[in-house]
C-alpha cells in the first residue's frame, strides 16, 4: 500500500545492448512491461529506420494469418499462454510455414470456387430447363405456335423464330426487359419466371435471387444485339433444346453431372476443413508471436546506433524497484545470444521530469482512474487516490443514503466481483458494461456505504425501520387521538431523553415536520463534512511541501490557508455542535430552552457583516459570554491571513534572490549574474499568479463550502423521489380489496422498474457525478497539481489488448465499417 | 433563415464532410511521401495518416494500380455514405455530382467499343460513382440516336443528350463532340440547379461551376486548333454559364491560335494570371496544372463558409486531386523517375 501514497520513483536508464542480444532482452522487457522507451530518432521517418524491413515482414505475416483465420469456419481458440519466446530462427520457420499454409488454402479456395461456380451453372441450367418447359407449353397452347411455326434451337436457325434462354439477377429484370424491348423496337417476346430456391454466390457466399428468361426473336441481327444486352446485364446464357425430348435428355445428363459434382464438392470441403482444423489451434499462438515480434522491432526502431561500437543505445524510464528485473532481462539476452560482451544498464542523472507511475491492483485501479482522468499527478506528488477509496464512496452515500437502493447496488456489484474472473475472460464490446465492470469495486463500496448511510437516515425505500424501539412515546389518551388528525409531541414530555441508539428515530417518519427536521440535520451535516474534507485537502499540501523541500511554504501558504478556513468555517461547525448540545427541551435555564436556540446561519452572517444582534428576553442572541469579542477576533485573524497568502511567497522569493545575489557578488566580484535583468518582469508575473491563487482560495472557501450543500440537496431529492414513488404507485396496491391486489400486481412492476431505472441508475449516476466534482474541484484544488504524464511501459499485454480493440473495429465487414463513418 | 434550418437535414452530413476534409493530406505529409524509396515505404507512411490500414490486406508486391483502386474505393465508400444519408435537395445535388462521372464512363465505353475493345476490359476502368444499370450494354448502340433511344433514355443523363441526337455514325470526332455537348448541358443544368437552391450554396457553387465552364471553353478552343472542327461548331460546345459568357466566348469563338486565346483571357483577371504562369518549357507548369491549382484553391475556399452544399462537391474534388497526387508520387516512386516527383498539387 505504500506505493499508493505517491507515485513510484523512476530512474532514467541508458542501455547499451549488442544487436544480437537486443531481441531477447526486449522480449523479456516486453513481457515484464516495466520500461518506457524514449524515441531517440524523432526526426527519422518511419520508413527510414533500422528495423523497418523486419516490421514489414511481420505485418505481412500478420496479414496472412488474418486472412487464414478469416477462412476458418469458426473463430480460433484463444492462444495458449506461454512465456516461451520464439527465436528468430523459429520465426523464420514460422514465416515459411505461414507462407505455405496461405498458398495451400488459397489454392483450395480457388478450386472450391471454380467447382462451386460450375455447380451453380449446372443448377441454373437444370432449373432453366424445368422452367422453360412450361413456357413452351404455354406458348403452344395459347398461340398454337407449335402447329404453325417451328421453334428452332438458337444454334442452328432454320426458319423464322430463334430464342435465347438464360438467367439474370431478379433485381435487374425490369430494366433488362425494357432495354431488350427498346433495341428491338418491340420485336421480341420475353418470358420470365423467378427461381424460388435461393442460390449461393460461389465467391462471396451471399444469396442470389435469379430469374429464368427466354427471349424469342426474329432474325440474326437482333440475335446479336440481344446477346450484347444479355452480356451487359451479366445474364448467363445456356443452350436449351427446343423439343421436349431433347430437354428431357439434357435434364437427365445435367442431373448426373450435378450428382458427381456434389460428391467432389463434398470431398474438397472435407479436405479443406481438415487442413483448417489442423491449424486452428495454433493460429492464435502464432498471431501472438508475430505481434510480439512486431512490437519488439517497433521498439528497437527507437534505439540509436553507435556505429563504432556496434551496439544499440536505448533510453528508458524504469521504476527504481524494478531495476533488477530490467538488469535480469539484459543478462538473459546476453546469455541467449552467447555474446562475450555484456549489456550495460547505466543510470543517467537527469533534470527531466520522470513519468508518473502508480502501481495499482484490481481494487485500486478504478479509484486511480478517477483521479487520473482529472490530470495525471505530477511526479511524486501526493496521490489523492488513496483517500478517495474511502471519501468517494462515503460522500456518494451521503447523497444516496437508502438501505434498499444500497442493497440493490451492493448485490449487483458483488455479483460482478464474485464472477469477475469469468467475466473478464470473455470481453464485451458493450461500452456501458465495460464501464460498470471497470468500476465494480467502486460500485461495491458505494453500495455498502449507502446501506450504512441509509441506516443512519433510517430510510429504506422511503420507509423507516424501527429496529430498537423509538425514543418517543404517545402521551395522549385514546379520545384525543381519535378526535385529532395530527397532534404535537412536546419533547420535554414525550421524549424519553435517551436517543435512539443508531441513526434517525423512526418516529420522524410520521412527523409532518419531517422534512424541516431532516433539512436542518442534513444541511449541517454537509457543511461539517465539507469543511473537514477541505481542511484535509489543505493539510495534504503540507505533505507535498515537506517532500519537495519547501518548508517555508508551510508558513507562507499552509498556515494562513488553514487558519482562514478554521477560524471562519470550522467555527461555524463548532456553533452547530454547540447548538445541538447546549439547547434542550428539558433545560432548566430558559435561555437554553428549545425556543431560544439562535439560528447558526444568522449568527454567522452577522459575524461576517460585523453586525451586533439584539437579545429578545428571555433569549440571548449569543450562545455564550464573550462570543461577540471572540468572533471579532477570529474575523480579524482570518482576514489578516489574506495578505500573508498574497505577499508571503513573492516576498520570500525576492528575499532569497537578493541573498543569493549578494552571495554571488561577494564570491565572484565583477561578474554580472545572468538573468538579473528579467527579475522585474518575473516578479510582476509572480505577484499576479499569487494574487490569482489567493483570490481563488479565499473565494473558493466560501463557494466550496456552499458547494458541499449539494450533499444535502441530492440526499433530499433522493429521499423525496423515493417517497413519491412509494405513495403514488405502490401504496394503492396495499389497499385491502380485490382491486388492490390487481393494482399491486401492476403497481409493483411499475414501482420496481422506476426504482431501478430512476432511483438506482439515474440518481446513482447523478450522485456519482456530484461526488466526482466534489473530489476534483473542492478537494483536489487545495493541493493537487496534476501536471505529470503517465508512465506507458513497453508491454506486450498492453499492446495486444490495444491491437485487439483495433482489430475489432477494422475486422468488421465493410458494411459495418460504413456505419462507423 | 436558410442557415437556421440547414442543420435539420444536412447538418450531420456537413459535419461528417468537414471531418473527412480534415483527413486530407497536408504539405508535411507530401514532403514525407516524396522521400519514399519504394511503394512499401509509401504504404507505411500512409498508415500513419487518415488512410489508416486501407492497404493492410494487400499482398506484398504493391502496384500503383492497386493503390489507385484502393484510394478510389475509399473515396467512393465515403461519398456513397453521404449520398445514402442525404435527403432532398442535397441528394439531388450529390446525384448531380455523379453525372459528370457518368458522362465520362459513357464516353470511355463508346470510345472503347469503337476501338474493338471487349467491354469486360473497359468496365473496371469506369469510375464507380458514375456507374448505372444500363452501362454495360452500351455497345449495342451504333449511332447517337440509338445510344439515346436504347440506353440513355432511362438514365438521368437523358435530358442532356437531346442536343446530340443525329443520325451520324459514332466516330472519334463525333464522340468528342458528344462529350462536350453533354458536358455543356451538364454544367449549365448544374449551374441552374445551384442557382435555384440559392443562398450560400449558389454563391459558392456558381463560382466553382463558372470556372469549370470557362476552363472547358478555353480547353476546347485550344484543343480545336488544327482539327477539322469548324468555328461555328466549336462555339456551340461552349458552356454558357461561365464568366466568359457572352463576350469572352464570342471572342474565343473567333480565336485562331494560342496567343489569341491568351489575349481573350487577358480581360479576366483570374484567368490572365493562370496564363501568365503557364508555359511548356521544362520547369514551367502547364496550363492544365495551373487550372488544377486554381480549382483546388476555389474548393478550399468553399470550406470557409458554412451551411451550404458546396463542401460536398469541394471535398470530392479535393480528395480526387489528392488521389491524383498520391498516384503521381507512386508512379514516380515505382518508376524511379524522381525528377518530376514534385509536380503534385498540394492542397493544404
Automatic annotation (TrEMBL), chain A:
Record-stated family: Belongs to the V-ATPase 116 kDa subunit family.
Q: Which PANTHER family match?
A: V-TYPE PROTON ATPASE SUBUNIT A (PTHR11629:SF61), VACUOLAR PROTON ATPASES (PTHR11629)
Q: Which regions form coiled coils?
A: 91-118
What keywords are annotated for this sequence in UniProt?
Answer: Coiled coil, Hydrogen ion transport, Ion transport, Membrane, Transmembrane, Transmembrane helix, Transport
Signal peptide stretch: none
Q: What is this protein called?
A: V-type proton ATPase subunit a
Q: Which GO terms describe its biological process?
A: vacuolar acidification
> What stretches pass through the bilayer?
394-420, 432-457, 527-547, 559-580, 633-655, 738-762
From TrEMBL, chain B:
Q: Which GO terms describe its biological process?
A: terminal branching, open tracheal system
- The question of whether Iron-sulfur is a record keyword is answered with no
Single GO term (MF): proton-transporting ATPase activity, rotational mechanism
Q: List keywords of the entry alphabetically.
A: Hydrogen ion transport, Ion transport, Transport
UniProt superkingdom: Eukaryota
- Name a Pfam family for this protein: vATP-synt_AC39
GO CC, alphabetical: proton-transporting V-type ATPase, V0 domain
Q: Which InterPro entries match?
A: ATPase_csu/dsu_sf, ATPase_V0-cplx_csu/dsu, ATPase_V0-cplx_dsu, V-type_ATPase_csu/dsu, V-type_ATPase_csu/dsu_dom_3
Q: Which residues form a coiled coil?
A: none
Entry keyword annotation includes 4Fe-4S: no
UniProt cross-references to PANTHER family, sorted A to Z: VACUOLAR ATP SYNTHASE SUBUNIT AC39
Annotated function:
Subunit of the V0 complex of vacuolar(H+)-ATPase (V-ATPase), a multisubunit enzyme composed of a peripheral complex (V1) that hydrolyzes ATP and a membrane integral complex (V0) that translocates protons. V-ATPase is responsible for acidifying a variety of intracellular compartments in eukaryotic cells, thus providing most of the energy required for transport processes in the vacuolar system. May play a role in coupling of proton transport and ATP hydrolysis.
Family of this protein? Belongs to the V-ATPase V0D/AC39 subunit family.
Assembly, in brief, is: V-ATPase is a heteromultimeric enzyme made up of two complexes: the ATP-hydrolytic V1 complex and the proton translocation V0 complex. The V1 complex consists of three catalytic AB heterodimers that form a heterohexamer, three peripheral stalks each consisting of EG heterodimers, one central rotor including subunits D and F, and the regulatory subunits C and H. The proton translocation complex V0 consists of the proton transport subunit a, a ring of proteolipid subunits c9c'', rotary subunit d, subunits e and f, and the accessory subunits VhaAC45 and ATP6AP2.
Name listed for the protein in its UniProt record: V-type proton ATPase subunit
What is the gene called?
732966
Amino acid at each position: 500500500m505504500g506505493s499508493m501514497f505517491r507515485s513510484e520513483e523512476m530512474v532514467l536508464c541508458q542501455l547499451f545492448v549488442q544487436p544480437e542480444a537486443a531481441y531477447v532482452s526486449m522480449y523479456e522487457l516486453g513481457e515484464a512491461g516495466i520500461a518506457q522507451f524514449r524515441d531517440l530518432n524523432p526526426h527519422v521517418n518511419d520508413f527510414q529506420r533500422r528495423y523497418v524491413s523486419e516490421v514489414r515482414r511481420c505485418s505481412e505475416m500478420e496479414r496472412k494469418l488474418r486472412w487464414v483465420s478469416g477462412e476458418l469456419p469458426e473463430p480460433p481458440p484463444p492462444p495458449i499462454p506461454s512465456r516461451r519466446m520464439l527465436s528468430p530462427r523459429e520465426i523464420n520457420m514460422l514465416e515459411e510455414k505461414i507462407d505455405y499454409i496461405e498458398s495451400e488454402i488459397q489454392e483450395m479456395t480457388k478450386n472450391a470456387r471454380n467447382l462451386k461456380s460450375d455447380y451453380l451453372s449446372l443448377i441454373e441450367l437444370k432449373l432453366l430447363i424445368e422452367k422453360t418447359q412450361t413456357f413452351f407449353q404455354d406458348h403452344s397452347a395459347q398461340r398454337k405456335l407449335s402447329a404453325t411455326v417451328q421453334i428452332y434451337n438458337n444454334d442452328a436457325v432454320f426458319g423464322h423464330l430463334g430464342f435465347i434462354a438464360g438467367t439474370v439477377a431478379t433485381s435487374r429484370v425490369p430494366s433488362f426487359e425494357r432495354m431488350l424491348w427498346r433495341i428491338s423496337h418491340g420485336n421480341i417476346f420475353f418470358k420470365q419466371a423467378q427461381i424460388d430456391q435461393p442460390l449461393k454466390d460461389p465467391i462471396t457466399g451471399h444469396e442470389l435471387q435469379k430469374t429464368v428468361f427466354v427471349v424469342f426473336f426474329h432474325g440474326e441481327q437482333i440475335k446479336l444485339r440481344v446477346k450484347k444486352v444479355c452480356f451487359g446485364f451479366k445474364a448467363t446464357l445456356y443452350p436449351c433444346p427446343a423439343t421436349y425430348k431433347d430437354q428431357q435428355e439434357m435434364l437427365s445428363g445435367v442431373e448426373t453431372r450435378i450428382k458427381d459434382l456434389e460428391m467432389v464438392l463434398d470431398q474438397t470441403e472435407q479436405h479443406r476443413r481438415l487442413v483448417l482444423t489442423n491449424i486452428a489451434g495454433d493460429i492464435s499462438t502464432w498471431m501472438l508471436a508475430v505481434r510480439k515480434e512486431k512490437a519488439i522491432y517497433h521498439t528497437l526502431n527507437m534505439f540509436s546506433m553507435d556505429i563504432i561500437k556496434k551496439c544499440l543505445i536505448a533510453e528508458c524510464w524504469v521504476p527504481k524497484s524494478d531495476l533488477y528485473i530490467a538488469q535480469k532481462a539484459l543478462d538473459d539476452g546476453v546469455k541467449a545470444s552467447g555474446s562475450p560482451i555484456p549489456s550495460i544498464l547505466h543510470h543517467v542523472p537527469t533534470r527531466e521530469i520522470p513519468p508518473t507511475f502508480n502501481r495499482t491492483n484490481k481494487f485500486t485501479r478504478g479509484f486511480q482512474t478517477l483521479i487520473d482522468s482529472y490530470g495525471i499527478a505530477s511526479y511524486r506528488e501526493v496521490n489523492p487516490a488513496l483517500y478517495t477509496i474511502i471519501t468517494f464512496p462515503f460522500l456518494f452515500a451521503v447523497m444516496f443514503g437508502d438501505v434498499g437502493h444500497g442493497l440493490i447496488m451492493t448485490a449487483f456489484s458483488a455479483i460482478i466481483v464474485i464472477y469477475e474472473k469469468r467475466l473478464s475472460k470473455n470481453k464485451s464490446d458493450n461500452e456501458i458494461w465495460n464501464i460498470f465492470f471497470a468500476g465494480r469495486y467502486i460500485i461495491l463500496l458505494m453500495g455498502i456505504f449507502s446501506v450504512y448511510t441509509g441506516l443512519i437516515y433510517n430510510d429504506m425505500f422511503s420507509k423507516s425501520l424501527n429496529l430498537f424501539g423509538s425514543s418517543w412515546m404517545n402521551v395522549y389518551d385514546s379520545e384525543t387521538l381519535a378526535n385529532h388528525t395530527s397532534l404535537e409531541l412536546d419533547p420535554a414530555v414525550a421524549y424519553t431523553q435517551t436517543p435512539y441508539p443508531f441513526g434517525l428515530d423512526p418516529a420522524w417518519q410520521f412527523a409532518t415536520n419531517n422534512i424541516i427536521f431532516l433539512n436542518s440535520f442534513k444541511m449541517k451535516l454537509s457543511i461539517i463534512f465539507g469543511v473537514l474534507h477541505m481542511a484535509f485537502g489543505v493539510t495534504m499540501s503540507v505533505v507535498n511541501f515537506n517532500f519537495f523541500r519547501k518548508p517555508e511554504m508551510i508558513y507562507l501558504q499552509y498556515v494562513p490557508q488553514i487558519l482562514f478556513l478554521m477560524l471562519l468555517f470550522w467555527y461555524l461547525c463548532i456553533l452547530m455542535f454547540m447548538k445541538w448540545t447546549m439547547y434542550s427541551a428539558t433545560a432548566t435555564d430558559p435561555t437554553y430552552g428549545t425556543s431560544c436556540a439562535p439560528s447558526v446561519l444568522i449568527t454567522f452572517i452577522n459575524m461576517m457583516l460585523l453586525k451586533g444582534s439584539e437579545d429578545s428576553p428571555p433569549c440571548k442572541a449569543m450562545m455564550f459570554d464573550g462570543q461577540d469579542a471572540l468572533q471579532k477576533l477570529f474575523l480579524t485573524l482570518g482576514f489578516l491571513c489574506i495578505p500573508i497568502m498574497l505577499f508571503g511567497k513573492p516576498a520570500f522569493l525576492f528575499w532569497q534572490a537578493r541573498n543569493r545575489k549578494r552571495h554571488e557578488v561577494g564570491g565572484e566580484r565583477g561578474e554580472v549574474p545572468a538573468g538579473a535583468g528579467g527579475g522585474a518582469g518575473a516578479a510582476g508575473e509572480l505577484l499576479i499568479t499569487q494574487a490569482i491563487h489567493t483570490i481563488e482560495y479565499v473565494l473558493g472557501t466560501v463557494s466550496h463550502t456552499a458547494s458541499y450543500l449539494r450533499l444535502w440537496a441530492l440526499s433530499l431529492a433522493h429521499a423525496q423521489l423515493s417517497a413519491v414513488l412509494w405513495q403514488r404507485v405502490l401504496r394503492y396496491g396495499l389497499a385491502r380489496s380485490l382491486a388492490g391486489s390487481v393494482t399491486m400486481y401492476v403497481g409493483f412492476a411499475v414501482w420496481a422498474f422506476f426504482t431501478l431505472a430512476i432511483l438506482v441508475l439515474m440518481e446513482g449516476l447523478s450522485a456519482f457525478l456530484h461526488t466526482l466534482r466534489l473530489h476534483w474541484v473542492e478537494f483536489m484544488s487545495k493541493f493537487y497539481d496534476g501536471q505529470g504524464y503517465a508512465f506507458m511501459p513497453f508491454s506486450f499485454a498492453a499492446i495486444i489488448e490495444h491491437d485487439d480493440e483495433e482489430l475489432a473495429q477494422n475486422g468488421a465487414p465493410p458494411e459495418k465499417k460504413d456505419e462507423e463513418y | 433563415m436558410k442557415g437556421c434550418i440547414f442543420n435539420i437535414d444536412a447538418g450531420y452530413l456537413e459535419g461528417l464532410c468537414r471531418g473527412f476534409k480534415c483527413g486530407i493530406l497536408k504539405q508535411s505529409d507530401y514532403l514525407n511521401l516524396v522521400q519514399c524509396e519504394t511503394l512499401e515505404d509509401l504504404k507505411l507512411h500512409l498508415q500513419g495518416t487518415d488512410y489508416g490500414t486501407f492497404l493492410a490486406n494487400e499482398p506484398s508486391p504493391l502496384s500503383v494500380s492497386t493503390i489507385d483502386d484502393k484510394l478510389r474505393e475509399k473515396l467512393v465508400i465515403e461519398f456513397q455514405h453521404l449520398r445514402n444519408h442525404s435527403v432532398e435537395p442535397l441528394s439531388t445535388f450529390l446525384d448531380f455530382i455523379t453525372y459528370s462521372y457518368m458522362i465520362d464512363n459513357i464516353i470511355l465505353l463508346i470510345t472503347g467499343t469503337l476501338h474493338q475493345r471487349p467491354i469486360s476490359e473497359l468496365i473496371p476502368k469506369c469510375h464507380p460513382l458514375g456507374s448505372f444499370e444500363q452501362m454495360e450494354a452500351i455497345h449495342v448502340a451504333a449511332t447517337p440516336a440509338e445510344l439515346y433511344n436504347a440506353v440513355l433514355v432511362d438514365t438521368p443523363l437523358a435530358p442532356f443528350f437531346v442536343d446530340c441526337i443525329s443520325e451520324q455514325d459514332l466516330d472519334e470526332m463525333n464522340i468528342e463532340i458528344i462529350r462536350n455537348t453533354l458536358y455543356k448541358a451538364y454544367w449549365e443544368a448544374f449551374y441552374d440547379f445551384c442557382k435555384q437552391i440559392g443562398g450560400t450554396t449558389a454563391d459558392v457553387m456558381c463560382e466553382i461551376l463558372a470556372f469549370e465552364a470557362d476552363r472547358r471553353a478555353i480547353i476546347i478552343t485550344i484543343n480545336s486548333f488544327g482539327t477539322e472542327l469548324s468555328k461555328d461548331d466549336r462555339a456551340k460546345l461552349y458552356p454558357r454559364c461561365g464568366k466568359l459568357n457572352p463576350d469572352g466566348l464570342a471572342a474565343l469563338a473567333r480565336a485562331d491560335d494560342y496567343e489569341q486565346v491568351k489575349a481573350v483571357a487577358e480581360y479576366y483577371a483570374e484567368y490572365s494570371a493562370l496564363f501568365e504562369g503557364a508555359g511548356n518549357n521544362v520547369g514551367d507548369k502547364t496550363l492544365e496544372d495551373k487550372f488544377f491549382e486554381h480549382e483546388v484553391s476555389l474548393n478550399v475556399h468553399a470550406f470557409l463558409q458554412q451551411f451550404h452544399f458546396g463542401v460536398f462537391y469541394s471535398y470530392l474534388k479535393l480528395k480526387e486531386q489528392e488521389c491524383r497526387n498520391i498516384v503521381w508520387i507512386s508512379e514516380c516512386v515505382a518508376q524511379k523517375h524522381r525528377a518530376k516527383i514534385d509536380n503534385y498539387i498540394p492542397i493544404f
